[in-house]
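Revision sheet: structure tokens.
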Amino acid sequence: MPIVDFEKYGEMLDRAKAGKFAYPAINITSNETINAALEGFQEANSDGIIEVSTGAGEFASGCLKDMVLGAVTLAEHAHRMAEHYDVNIALHTDHCVPEKVGTFLIPLVEETERRRAEGKPNLYQSHMFDGSVLPLDENMKTSVELMTRLAKNKQILEIEAGVVGGEEDGIDHTGTSAEKLYTTPEDMVAVHEALAQVKNARYMFAATFGNVHGVYKPGNVKLRPDILKSGQDAVVAKYGAEAHFDLVFHGGSGSSQEEIHETLEYGVIKMNVDTDCQYWFTRPVLDHLMKNYDGVLRIEGEMGNKKVYDPRSYLKQARTSMAERVKQACIDLKSDGKSMGR
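Predicted:
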């Protein structure tokens, strides 16, 4: 089916919150990883989110290193492919830091505005502005400006307050002090107060509770999901149940099932899945190359074996493996079997 529109996207998020499940948001970098994400969602009978970072956009444009061009072409491929699957998919851009708003996020918004003027659907259904490195008032000032513009296009904004530790896609927060890894209830109330002024708009909120980008053994990342509950309780106590946030979980690799499921109780409706998908995509490629090294390489004057150095032979295995990880993410987040269908 086509990529979802604003109304159906909103329905997806509302169903997740009501049902206490979340959608995996799968970071992709190529047509092959888009196909893997779609196959995984289909196999799980789960709706889902596919997202593109600035680095993924740059990579997808090859030697041109044009993150906007790459992000446009990835989205176009996803639009065409999604029409042939029976699950609902939204397209999203991941962490856009302040210095890249003008060179990444705004050009993509302008592309959607051009398409809407021509009667075409939105290119992306939501965008993330990661202003977590800014003082909260500056973060919210830019967030309000962006959300006002996105609301006119019927797009959703994701924002972040508090810092996700670790490193992802060139954004390095490994030296962040511990206190900044936890969003306070006061900050969560301030976020609501700032963004509630934008009428007819919708947003998602990546509050931080000790989460860290990257991959770690269970127990190495000290999550405090109770931070989310405290923040939700504070904003609801002051502004009522309608103020309850749609929360996003970043940096979930290595989290226990118990921790993940606890966040669902507190309003998490989207969880980013990147590092594990990278590993599951790459692992079968390594297996293939090691098992077939004498066919992949032209050793001692031989010509090798075209069947095993044809990129399709190992990329198909990579795609299938990543699709399995996407399916598992749906199971972990309890979105499996819950597609709205057509």
